[in-house]
Every structure is written in C-alpha cells, then in structure tokens.
Amino acid sequence: MKRNWGTKLKTVLLASTVTLFAFSLICYPKQSLEASIRGLNMWWEVVFPSLLPFFIISELLISFGVVSFLGVLLEPLMRPLFRVPGVGGFAWAMGMASGYPSGAKLTARLYQEKQLSTIEAERLASFTNSSNPLFIFGAVSAGFFNNPHLGLVLAISHYLGNISVGLIMRFHGIRKEKGKPKRSPRPFSLPYALRTLHQTRLKNEQPLGKLLGDAVRSSVQTLLMIGGFIILFSVVNKLLYMMHLTEQFAPLLRQLLRLTQLPEQFDIPVFSGLFEITLGSQMISQTEEASLLEKAVATSFILAFGGFSVQAQVASILAEANIRFQPFFIARLMHGVFAALFTYLLWKPLYVQTASGEPDSIPTFLPIPPDNAWDEVWQLLQQYGPLVTLLFLCLYIWLTAKTTNGTRGRL
C-alpha cells in the first residue's frame, strides 16, 4: 500500500513539474527563446565539433581491436588501482581528453561489448567523466577569468580529484563480488596483447566503409541527444531565475557557503552552475565581492560536479546500457569536494608562485602551453565549429537515408 502511494505521489510530482514547465514557457517566451539559442550556440559552435572526432575514433578503435590491445597492456595498472579491467584505461584517457560525457559513452560501449561487468561499469563511469583541457584552459581560464595561469591549478585539481574518486570507488560493490572468484591482473605481455588485437579485428568482418558509417551515425546520434539536453537545461535554468525560484533556494546555499567560508554572493552563481557549468563558471568569474582564490575554489566544485545538464546526458547514456546512475551521482559530489579541496591546497605552489614569475615553481612534468595557445584554439573552434557541425549533420542525414533505402530494398 505504501509503495502504491509512493508511485502515485511520484506520478503527481512529475506531471506537476512538466505542467509548470510548459506554463512557464508560455509566460516567458522571449526569455525561453534566448536561453534556447544560447544553448544551441554552445552545442553548435563548441560541443559538437570538439566531441565528434573523439567519438568516431573511439568507435573505430573498439572495432579494430586497439582497445582490447590497450586493455591487456593496462591490466596490471587498472586492476590493482581501480578494480576495473585494463580497457578502462582507454575510457579514462579518452574521457579526460574529450570531456563530458565521453567516459560514460565509452563505458556503456565496453559494457555492451561484455568487456565489463555491471559493477565494473559503475566504477568506471564514476571517474572517467571530466571537463576537457580545452574548456578549462580556453573557456574558463582565458575566456571567463581572462587569466591563463589559472588553468593550471584548475586542471590539476580537477584531474587529481577524479583519480581520488576512482581510488574510493574501487570499493563500490565489493560485497556483491565476494562470492565470485577474484580476477588477478594478467602480467604485462606484449605478444599476448598483439594476439588479442588480431583476434578482435578478425571477429569484425564488416568492410571499412560500413564501420566508418556506423561510427559516424552512432556518434552524431549521441551528440544530438547531448545537444537536446544542453538546450533544455539552458531554458530550465533561465525559467527558474525568471520565476524567482532561484532566489528561493539561495538562502539554503548561503548556509552551505558559510560552512565552507565562501562569500554568500556565490549563492546564485553556484545554483546556476549546479544546472549548467558554463553559465555558473561565467557568473562566478564576474562576482566582484570574492577573491580569486575563492572564485577558483567555487569554479573547481562546479566543473567537477558537472551540472545537472551533464548528469542528465550521462543518465540517458547509462540507462540505454542498463547501468545504474546513482553511483555516478555520488561520485560527482565527491569529485566536487576533492577538486575544491585540491584547488585550495595547491593554490600557493601552482598559482601564486607561478603567476609571480618564479620558473622554479612550475613542475617539470607539467609543461604549460603559451598563455594564448588555448585561447586561440577556443576562438578557432567557435569560428569554424559551426561549419564542421553542418557538414557532419549533412553526412549523417545521407548515411541514414542510404541505410533506410537499403533496408527497404531488402524488404
């Protein structure tokens, strides 16, 4: 009986929320259109052209057996540290390089290929999703803060936080694995890795053109879904502000900000960042009442948490593969806390001394690109990104139409 009431309450809550959203769209059509265009521009100019190459290459690497090859080589590292197979190292590296939600897509793909168990997929998804370096250095540091030096501390704190999450999530689901035999990591063996590469490629007998077409179609479909979520949450964020609901939640955020000794003026920027990281990071950078360190700590948390927009994208990808979303959400909270803490701890050695011009303070294993390098790449992406998006959308339409006509011909 209680379960029945809970289901009915959930139905009423969901129906009321959607109805309120539809009513607010009618009340604020101009603001909704502006927010929708803003989200579309972000997807059109940056997200699509920056993620598409990684998605296509990832699909091809899996099909040609390169991921299986890397999985054998990385098994001695990934299994003891994170309790995931070696193929998780590929998802981890690609997730850091390409950004949200590449890690989730690759995890779901590897799970569907039966290279991961359910628990291993949940572990892997929790720490392979992160902001890419281009966004951290180009958009946030150079674009919003106009301070390229800030990108170093934000990036290192972000990725150290992700590693910390992975080390903690290795204990996730350990009770469920008690009855199963333990899999000890296979020793490093290049000949065995090469044999695995060859055997995986032989299993896939499709021609190169078919593999490439499937990779393009799958990648564009995922990016279309991502674009829809970006536009939706951009509109939701704006409508919450227009209906003054953001101000209603602000007092609760102020209490949390007091506990962390951050300025109360971060209440609305942080709330906005909980929905969409781009807008939240921009608003935090424009808060005049806070010091640069306080802005960096708050921005680190927002970048690591990912925002509900990114989390909705990941939830959709994981749901298609029947992977639970809850561990990922808990991991995002931990990542936010870790990233903010690392930013505070590393502020003096990685920013104060570096920005003051002391070359000895820069770690030798972390070469810093020229100050304007990331900014130039970001500008080029915004300039030529729409053209790349348009070309691949046309290619996607052509491939889909060709596949549909081929299917009808067989029928």
Automatic annotation (TrEMBL):
Stretches that traverse the bilayer: 51-74, 81-100, 150-173, 223-243, 296-317, 329-347, 384-401
Keywords of the record: Membrane, Transmembrane, Transmembrane helix
Highest classification ranks of the organism: Bacteria, Bacillati, Bacillota, Bacilli, Bacillales
Protein name in UniProt: Nucleoside transporter/FeoB GTPase Gate domain-containing protein
Residue ranges annotated for the Nucleoside transporter/FeoB GTPase Gate domain, each copy included: 46-143, 223-319
Native species: Geobacillus thermodenitrificans (strain NG80-2)
InterPro entries xrefs: Gate_dom, Spore_IM_YlbJ
Pfam families: Gate (PF07670)
